[in-house]
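Can't attach files on this board, so I'm pasting raw text. These are the components:
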Amino acid sequence: MSRSGIAGWLLRRLGGALLLLLLVVTAVFVALHALPGDPTTLLLDPRVPPSARAVLIHQWGFDRPLLAQYVRWLAHAARGDWGTSIVHHRPAGAVLWAALPYTLLLGGAALLVEIVVALPLGVLAARRRGGTADHLLRVGSLLFYALPTFWLGLMALLLFAYRWPLFPAGHASDPGSSGGPRELIRHLALPALVLGLAGAGALLRLVRGSLLAALPDEPLRAARARGLTESRVVWVHGLRRAAAPLLQVLGLSLPALLGGALVVEVVFSWPGLGRVAYLAVLSRDLPLVIACTAWSAALVVLGGLLADLATTAADPRQREALVEGTLG
Amino acid sequence: MAEQRRRVFDGGSSDSPANGGVERLQSAEPRIESASSERPALVAGTFLAALLAVLALFAPALAPHDPTRVWDAAAGRLLPPGSARLAVSFADGRTALAETVRPAGPGLLAWKRLDRWQQLPAATIVAVKPIAFPLGTDRYGRDLASRLLFGARVSLRVGLLAVALALLLGIGVGAAAGLGPHWLDALLSRGVDAMLAFPRLFLVLALAALAGGGETLVVAALAATGWMEVARLVRAELSRLRGEEFVLAARAAGVPPPRLLLRHLLPLALAPVLVTAALRLGDALLAEAALSWLGFGVQPPDASWGSLLAEAQASLPGAWWTAAFPGLAIALAVLAFALLAEGLQGALEPRR
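---
Top answer:
C-alpha cells for the assembled complex are below.
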C-alpha cells in the first residue's frame, strides 16, 4: 500500500464530506423556505405597516426568487457570513461561535462518560456472557436506551439539584459570577452525566457484541496459546480487534449525540448550539435556524470523517480496504 | 461500508468481510447464544406491546375518569398518587372535591376542603360520591391515570402512522436503489447518506416549528426523517438478492419488475424490515415525546405522553408524579418495541 493511496483516499473522503454537507445544507434551505407561509408573516407583528414590512422584506432578501436567495446565501456562507440573526441583531455566525465551545464541551464530556461507563461494563458482559452480570447489564442498557433523554434530565434535576442540592440547576456559571474552570465543571457534571448515560446503554451492547465477535478469532487463540492471561487477551488483543467497528459506530452515533445535546441543553439551560437552535425556532429567527442546522450537520460530517480516520489508524486491514475503494 | 455499519448497529456482532467475517460466520457460537437468549425477549416484547395496544384501544372503558374533566380547580390540583376524595355535585352542575363531608344540623352539611371546615346548605348538593385518583392529578386537577391511558392512544397513533409512512417511503426508495440502474442507486444512496448525517431532532424541530406544530405535522416530520434506515436495509437486501438464480430465472421468464419485487423479493426481505420497523417505532415514540415536550408536538386538548411531560414541567419540583409516570410510560413502550425487535431478529434470522 502506498502513501499516495492514502492521500488519494483522504482527498476523496474530504470531497465526499463537502458534497454531503452541501446536499444537507441545500435540503435544509429548500425545506425551510418551501414551507407553506411566508416567513415574514411569522417574523413580523401583524401591526407592522405594509410600507415598513416591504422595506424589511427587501432588506432580508425574501422578495427575491428562491434560487437567487439560495445562491446569495450559499455565496455568503462559503465566505463565513451566515446572515444576520433577526432576534440577536448580530451575525448568526458570531452567535454560533459563542455557543459552539459549550456544545463541544458537553458532547466531549458526555462521550467520555459514555466510554468510561460502557467500555468496562461491555467487556464484563462479554466475559460473563450468559451470566447474571450479563443479564443485568442487558436489562439496564435497554432501560437507559428506552428512557427519554429529557426525562432523565428532568429527574436528575429533580433529585440532584432540588431534593439533594448537590449540583447547580442549570446554566454554565453561577449568576453574577466571573466563572472559572471549577464552576464550569460543577455546572457541566449533571448534563454530561445525563447525556452520557443516555448513550451508554447502546454503546455497552456494541462493545459486548464486537468483543464476542472477535474473541474466537485466530490471533486471540494465538495469544492465549502464547500463555497470556485472559484479561490481557480481552483488554489488549480483543479490544484492538473490536476497535474499528466501535469507532465507526461512535462516528455514526454523533447525530444522536447532538440531538440528545439539544434536549439536554434545553433542560439544563446550557448555552450551546442546541439551546440556540431551540430559542431561534421559538422566535422564528429563520437565518439563525438555517445556520444552526447547517452547523450541526457540519459537526456530524466532521465527526464521521474523524471516526473514519481513527478507524484506519486502528485497523490496517480497514486502511487497505479503504484505499482499494471497497469501503467508503 | 453502509451495510457493514448497519450490521454493527443492528446485530451487535460484526461479521464484516474486512474483519475476517467468513471465518466467524462458520463458527456457530454466537448464534446458539442468541437463540437461547432472544426467546424471552420475544415473549416479553410481544406481551408488553399487546398490553399497550389493549390499554390504548380500550382507554375509554378502562380510564377511571374523563381525561379532560376538572373536578375542582383549587382543591383537586396536584393530588399525589393514591389520593381519594369525595366528589360533591351541586345542583348548578359544578363539582368540588372534599376530604370529608358530614351532616351539620338540619338542612346543613359540613365539608372539609383545602384543610378548612365549611358549612353549606344541603339543598344545593345533588350527590356525594367517593372517587380515587390512582396516579394523582395534574396541575389543573385532571386525573393523571386517565390522561395517561388516553395519551397512549395519541402517542401510539402518531408512532404507528409515522413508521408506516416511513416504511412505505423507505421500501420505495430502497427498491428503486436496489433494483434500478447504477446511477440511480448512487444518487439515492448519496441522498440517504446526507439525510442520515443529520441530527434528526434539529430538522424535525425546525420543520415542526416553522409549520406550527400539530399531530399531522409531527407524523409527517417523523416519517420524513425516519425512512432512511429502512431504505438502506431494503437496498442492501435487494442488491444481495438480485444476483440469485431464482431472480434471474424469473426475469428470464418475463416477470415484470413490480411483480418480481412484490411477490418474490420483498417477502424475503421482510424479516429485517420488520425488525427495523419495531426499532423505528421506539425511536418515533422518543422523538415524538421530545418534540411534544419542546412544545411543537401534539396540541391541546389532545395530549400525548410527551405533552403530558411538557405540562408536568410547570409543576416540578413539587409534583414528581406528573413527570415520573408519563416518562415511565414512554420508557415502557420503547422497551416493549426494543424487546420485540430483538426477539424478532432472533426468531427470524435462522430462516434467512
